[in-house]
């Protein structure tokens, strides 16, 4: 089950965290994976890990906010994608009163515009072949507002809306569009943010307490969901927001 043998995939933000875990899971399932990241050494590190395990991967330096970079990536990939994972994203802390327009635009540029530009670039070939899977990494904050995350919540709601609009507009195309909405995930980026708090241990306990499991999710647990959505077994799944939140929203 969930074989991706013979499929061509591209994962943005594949240099670390959730993106790296997805790239690795896809490779294990038999896909050829383009590991795309703005940080090329990180993309290369993920690629080396995949190839050392016998997988097929290629690193790709890519800034998803740059139309020039995206055009170059499309030329490098050359063949039509079977799977596009729009995972790259950024976050920030603050309310509307403490968020600057520059900060809001930074998050819109990556989380919203980057997802838009990547999908716009790679979707036509999928539509022509009448098959494909586009997976957008949104967030629990894309369906439920998170306190003190004004800009992040705003952009992730946009990603969820974009996913649903894509599914509706192309419902008969054979291409599927879905969003994954994780809770807090144990990634290097999250660890760095925790270290910036005055009391990192207290901050970690607070973050973990929101999940019924009493811990943050692991990147591999998000990758498992992406593997399912990318596979032929998910042929009837489109326009969905797959919650991976350990019950955070159960009582909401």
Unreliable parts:
none
Shape: globular
Mean pLDDT: 94
**Main beta sheet, described?**
7 strands, parallel
The number of strands is 7
Estimated share of beta-strand residues: 15-25%
Please list the strands of the largest sheet in the order they lie side by side.
3-2-1-4-5-6-7
What's the SSE pattern? EHEHEHEHEHEHHHE
| Class from helix and strand fractions | alpha/beta
Distance between the termini: 34 Å
Give the SSE map.
Elements: E1 8-12, H1 17-28, E2 32-37, H2 40-52, E3 56-61, H3 67-77, E4 83-86, H4 101-129, E5 132-137, H5 150-169, E6 175-182, H6 188-195, H7 200-209, H8 219-230, E7 241-244
Parallel strand pairs: 1-2, 1-4, 2-3, 4-5, 5-6, 6-7
Helix pairs in contact: 1-2, 1-8, 3-4, 4-5
Brief description of this entry?
With 252 residues, the protein is of the alpha/beta class.
Describe this structure in words.
The protein has 252 residues and is of the alpha/beta class. It contains 8 helices and 7 strands; from the N terminus they run βαβαβαβαβαβαααβ. Strands 3-2-1-4-5-6-7 form a 7-stranded parallel sheet, with helices on both faces. α1 runs parallel beside α2 (40-52) and α3 (67-77) packs parallel to α4 (101-129). The radius of gyration is 17 Å and the shape is globular.
Keywords summarizing the entry:
252 residues; 46% helix; seven-stranded parallel beta sheet; alpha/beta; 15% strand; 8 helices; single chain
